[in-house]
Batch of 2 targets.
Target 1
Amino acid sequence: MISKQVASAAEAVADIPDGASIMIGGFGEAGSPIELIHALIDQGAKNLTVISNNTGSGEVGLAALLQARRVTKVICSFPKTANSTVFPELYNEGFTALELVPQGTLAERIRAGGAGIPAFYTPAAVGTPLGEEKETRVLGGREYLLEFGLTADFALVKGQQADTFGNTLYNKTARNFGPIMAMAGATTIVQAANVVAAGEIDPETVVTPGIFVDRVVHVVDPLVESKLIAAGVSYP
Amino acid sequence: MTDGAQGWTREQMAQRLAQDIADGSYVNLGIGIPELIANHVPEGRTFIYHTENGLLGMGPAPDEGDEDPELVNAGKKYVTAIDGAAFFHHADSFAMIRGGHLDLSVLGAMQVSQHGDLANWSTGKPGAIPGVGGAMDLVAGVKQVFVITQHCTKAGEPKLVEQCAYPLTGKAVVDRIYTNLAVIEVTADGFACIERAPGVAFDTVAAATGAPLIDRCGAAS
């Protein structure tokens, strides 16, 4: 009987090596897999490339991973989050490089990567600084940019409910990048507040089919980033 | 030079723009003045709000105590979901945007050129952290793009210009501009003023505009 459930967040991230590329779900705090990120900080992997929409807030979660100087490159759409000076300092110091990607292009690059599509054309960013030096093509009289699919060695995703086969459901706008990052990660780790036996989730309601998920971690009462920040918490 | 207090207030600008949105439209509202539009839906009309982080059917801010950190808008503010709302992942959300399924995107602006080029994401200053979010996808994909903005900067410089000095969000993407002074259409011939705020003279609008302005106010519906 398959079970993808592992005992702890620490066990789930134990084999992430130095230099790995890691997709981290979340749009701001919504959907950010804080426990997996904190386990990764404890684990110590460095020289990481992180693909995530933002760069974290305060000094917890994704911002804490950056602050621990583990991330040398981020690929994201909006690194200017309120109440965090962590990324701007690392960026200005030259420690962490930035590849800025329009949000929809980022999402489609991840979706395409997970779907085995190496590249695609998009109209977003044509004629802008983010479109410079990119291959273009006119299709149907309109100019498009060539963008490349994006995959990663690992994906860290926050679900609401998962079963032992890895089938995953999400909570409201915390879904955001979870389903597509689950597809694009060579090894995808899902943390979920509710883990059930295979068969307990109605197959009609499954959002991420278990084939895209490699490990499931039960995180009963996930931390809430904004509450940690309000309380002045700094991790570790 | 223009007095920032002249003409319509921010709420009146939002109210004026809302008059031009058809019943049943799927609308994406940007951060800032665009958000005020939701307070001014004309009687008898329903707009369905899309927020690109993954919700169609966004409702107003929750009551105090009902905030859910996993139910937020593109500005990461707490929102609610209306009856009939749907959640979806980011690739689907931008398929709605890029695939031309949304009727209208309303955005703020730093500058708009007479050809409809929009600059609203970066001043291009060295050392500034750039952040683009979904603006480039929105202007490239949504059927109609309206800008709502003060006519001039706080320093009194025109935001409507011949050529944008700031880095572009998109080329030839803006259809219409709603400012505190006027409603201005981007036409093949450049900026055309189609309506002025009460008590604002055409010459005042033209003087506050950094590009030639055509007077079509009589033709406004």
Target 2
Amino acid sequence: MIFKALFQQLLTKPVTNCFPAKYMPKSVVGFLAKVEKGEAKLTPPVPVTEGFRGRIAYDREKCIGCQLCIRVCPARVIEFKPEEKKIRMYVARCTYCAQCVDVCPVGALSRSQDFLLADYDRFSPDLIVE
Amino acid sequence: MKEVRLEPEEMSEKKLEKTCPTCFEVPIGPIHPALKEGIRFTFWVEGEKIKKVDIRPGFMHRGIEFMGTKRNLVQLIYLAERICGICSVSHPLALVQAVEEAAGIEVPPRAQYIRVIIGELERIHSHLLWAGVAAHELGFDTLLHYVWKVREPVLDLLEDITGNRIDYAIPIYGGVRRDIPPEKYPKLKDALRYYRSLVDDFVNFFLRDPSIEARTRDVGILTREEADVLCAVGPTARASGLRKDVRQDWPYFTYPDLEVKALTPEDMGLEVRGDVYDRIVVRLLEVVQSIQIIERCLEEMPEGEITSVPKVAALLAQLKKAEGEGIGRHEAPRGEVIHYIRLEADKEAPVVWKVKAPTYSNFMPWFPMFEDQEIADIPIVAASIDPCICCMERVYLVRGEREEVVWKEELLRLSREKTKRVASRLARHAPWGRKG
């Protein structure tokens, strides 16, 4: 029977991490603005693991403009800038497979730990890596 | 062997009207709260009993095979991964097998072990997910929350190994993309020990619970003969007593060394009845089996390379030259998945890519399962094969010349035609129109 297990549940700590706040704020945007001002405290998200595939980080200096990443990207995230021989990534399209990281011959791309990337504008500066 | 008829003659629609004038037609779907995905069931019911069922798929077609022929093979892996969110390693595993066969790429043993480990971890999380859904369909939401809570550790483990909870992006042609370093073995073993300790609880909560037994025993029966004739696969077939498993019948990766056997309720000392209860039994047995397989893999895994073609650019060049066709099959949590691929030289994209998801085979067994069931049993019987409609949809059927969707213009045209037809008939029968 399940009753014993359920009573045990009552006494244990909940597994859910109450992110961003213990009680749901009336407006999440308003709450985040308050956090920025220092009026409220954010419950941090569950930390990600070491090898987590988050937003791709780009080292502009190392990039040699070989365009291999553009060839393997399944979501066509990456755009080539011919005049500078560098790339621009639209993170809103990214599927976070990190195949571009594997293919890059000079190690200009790497996986970062960023995952809180929700935005109202898909072309916002947070979502464009160049 | 007993003859199995899909549509007994006395059940055909016209005869049904004659023999069963009290039958009502109950449509469920394409969009319905009892269903997770779009599919339409039409039930002919007499009172509470289902007399006949008709099923129409085709609402969730995404044209994924067509999209695949517009991408190169490395991009294709990530598209294949997104055929199904729950079996998100099964489809790429079948695909890489097909391409490796077509292009003649060898896979190092360590990579094969890692593929098996990820595949079996996925089986554990998929079966737990199904157990939660089944509990929810029975109206036992407490159990749903409990099961999904204990499913979290395996997802965390997958995130730790591969970098994401689902869509692991781990297989690549010729091996895997990430190694499992020996530092992570203790974590894996801890998680397996945790699931081993839960098995007794699961048997108590699911199999010894009187209300679950009452709702699932002798509900949605699929006999052994029906399962065989209708080509059921996966746990659905095994719950009917059919010892059928790709890992046993056509072993691949390192499964031949692991001596995997297809499990049926007999392995738990139960009589096979082929009902929903048996499907729960088989899935619980398979969770235990997966734990054993992973434990053995961790012990036997050799050192060495994880891929035979480490440079992706070289891999792309090799695949571009490759010519031929290949078939890859993998035992996904829901059953057998088959990928067929045809490659031509100097073409980066595959010429043909064909995917068969397990639900496609488990679709026909729904017909005998639904027969003589009650309306209230529809959700649990439908969920008992663990359907994945989106993965299955390969075509959208347009019957004859006419499209299925009738737009305003078409409707107007039909209406005008009918007026014309009726008017001409009226004119023929009207006294002033009669000649002679």
